[in-house]
Amino acid sequence: MKAVAIQKAVNVIKMDSWTSPVDFRYQDETSEFKIECDRVAAHKRGQVYTPKPWESLPYLAKDDLGTVQVRGFLHDRVAQNVDGSFSHPASLSTEEIIGRLGKAWKAHSKKCRATEISHHRLVFSVSSEFHDGLVQAGRNPDSVLKGIIERSMRSFQEKFHAGDSVSYSYGLHHDTDNLHAHIFVHPRTREGSFVGLSGKPTKHQHHASAHKDQLGFLRENVRRRVSQVLKELSHPKEASHLKNNLHSDRAYFVPRHSHTARSKNDFRPRRPDDFQLERHRAAVVALDRQIMAKRAALHEASGGRHLAMVFHFRQPKWLRLMKKAQTATLFRELRELQQRRYRKISEYRAARRRVIPGPFSTRTVPPRRKSKTPITPIKPSPPKPTLVRAKPIKPSSSRRGI
């Protein structure tokens, strides 16, 4: 069952590379647009549309139903408000996320080189056997699928677009017999490079194709993530420990909780790795506060100039030059803080990868304790005398006369 589950547990399907405008309402399974699309598709197949009731899934959190997740460089653009402040996407409604994501998606496409492809569409489908196994082990299939998607896309980015960022959005759907996720991938990276999702390269006239097998790499990476989950499910201690502590990396994600803090029933001692992660996390939090204060000072410095322009109040030239220099200094300091924050986040991620090598493990393996009983050293035995065997005397072949 394990070998079959690895191959068919999570199937990656590429729908197509679409040239039509992207509509993120399709990723929200509770929207009327998605329900109408499914109803029309069922009518074309000659079937009756009967959506699966969400109330029959006891593990499903109804608050997360229909939520559209954004990852990559568009995450910060969706979180940015009109006044320059930032709001976490979890605090926004699905309609606000879809509206901001559509504007940021189109704005980045216009900045980059023109391409006919508007987005790539992928589907990650979970088999019923793997789904039931997760539920029986006490794991949330939605959280497991999110972790597989995000870590697989992170590996895809590091493989084909190292040093750059690939942005995508996805939404989980429960309206069929199999849990699945619809993923929209932006055709351009943060730096403007084209994101390809080609399949297996073919040979033409005995020459290998120049295209890369991005889809094959993504499928193989998903199988590797599934095998890691199955190993954790087979280990009873790991399954009970990771039941409510499923780790899922997110792009541009910095945890807000302290790594040295412990829950009430967690009596494990703090390790040096925890303090190291806590130092990196505290540095990022401190830089966030400095950036907020610097942005507020920049807004206040530029506010007086705008007010003078409204009332047509002409300030002296020396005052205008001084305020302009002050604004430029604040803006330069703000950019330096943002660059420092980016470096600190990179250091935090590197330290976390060293501490947490696997996608679902939450701690490093503790070192093996030394036994308290003293070990008596074994005295070397004296070397055994080597016995030299004498060679047997062969009888002479000549005969004596009688």
What does this structure look like?
The chain has two domains: 252 residues, no CATH class; 83 residues. Helix content is 44%, strand content 9%. The protein has ten helices and seven strands. The protein is globular. 21% of the residues are buried.
Going by helix content, strand content and strand pairing, the class is alpha+beta
Compressed to H and E, one letter per element, the order equals: HEHEHHEHHEEEEHHHH
Mean pLDDT: 76
What is the CA-atom radius of gyration, in angstroms?
31 Å
Strand order of the largest sheet: 1-3-5-4-2
Number of E-type strands: 7
The termini sit apart by: 88 Å
Helix/strand layout:
Blueprint: H1 2-8, E1 10-18, H2 32-44, E2 69-71, H3 74-79, H4 94-111, E3 119-126, H5 128-136, H6 141-160, E4 168-173, E5 180-185, E6 203-204, E7 207-208, H7 214-234, H8 236-241, H9 272-310, H10 317-355
Antiparallel strand pairs: 1-3, 2-4, 3-5, 4-5, 6-7
